[in-house]
Structure formats: structure tokens, C-alpha cells
């Protein structure tokens, strides 16, 4: 999994598997993080990767770039994201009401423990 972390000075790609930063992209002082994310993604081999981003990164172009690079994504969605939030909320309401019939999905759970904690 590759997690993209945004700071006011730049965006970093963190590999949870290897526990290290894979790449960083500085944010221009006259710009914002949204412009740095596509540049950072160009530096990465996304094939088979799962990329996570906060709500700032929930952009159509960013999702398309990840998919075209062979990766998958987990994007955060907030209520202030125009038409997208109500559409997704409606989709889930219908899926739940229909007991997920006709919808292909999978579920995975991984429980890790260390230092006597789950």
C-alpha cells in the first residue's frame, strides 16, 4: 500500500509495506497540493499498488492516473464535495436496502498485533 501524505510544503508517498518514503514532491508556494499529487504519482510504479489519499486528493484526474498506472485507490469523501457525496451516499443506501444483491464485492480483514495489543 502507498499512502500519500500532504503537508503544507509538499506531498510524500509512504510505503506501509517497507516503512519508508518512496518519493516526495514539493508544493510550489503559488500552488497547492492538488498540483503536486499528479507529479508525485508519475514518479511511482503503481502497478498492483493500493494508493490512499485524503479528501483533497479525491479528484477524477488523480483516480484516472492511478488506474492507468495499474493501481487501485482508496479515496476519502467529504460532504462538501459537490454532487459526488450525495451520489455515493445514495448508491450505498440502495446497496444496503437491497442487501447488496447484484453487486460484486469482497471483504478482507487483517488483524495485526504487537506489543501485546491488537
Automatic annotation (TrEMBL):
Record InterPro entries: ISAs1_transpos, Transposase_11, Transposase_11-like
Transmembrane segments: none
Highest rank taxon of the organism: Bacteria
Gene Ontology MF: a single term: transposase activity
Classification via Pfam families: DDE_Tnp_1 (PF01609)
BP terms from Gene Ontology: DNA transposition
Domain spans labelled Transposase IS4-like: 13-106
Name assigned to this protein: Transposase IS4-like domain-containing protein
Organism of origin: Microcystis aeruginosa NIES-2520
Amino acid at each position: 500500500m502507498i499512502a500519500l501524505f500532504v503537508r503544507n510544503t509538499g506531498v510524500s508517498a509512504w510505503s506501509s509495506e517497507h516503512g519508508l518514503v518512496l518519493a516526495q514532491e514539493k508544493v510550489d508556494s503559488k500552488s497547492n497540493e492538488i498540483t503536486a499529487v499528479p507529479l508525485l504519482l508519475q514518479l511511482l510504479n503503481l502497478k498492483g499498488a493500493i494508493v490512499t489519499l485524503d479528501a483533497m486528493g479525491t479528484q477524477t484526474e488523480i483516480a484516472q492516473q492511478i488506474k492507468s498506472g495499474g493501481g487501485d485507490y482508496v479515496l476519502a469523501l467529504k460532504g462538501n464535495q459537490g454532487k459526488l457525496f450525495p451520489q455515493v451516499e445514495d448508491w450505498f443506501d440502495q446497496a444496503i436496502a437491497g442487501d447488496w444483491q447484484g453487486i460484486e464485492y469482497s471483504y478482507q480483514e487483517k488483524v495485526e498485533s504487537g506489543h501485546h495489543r491488537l
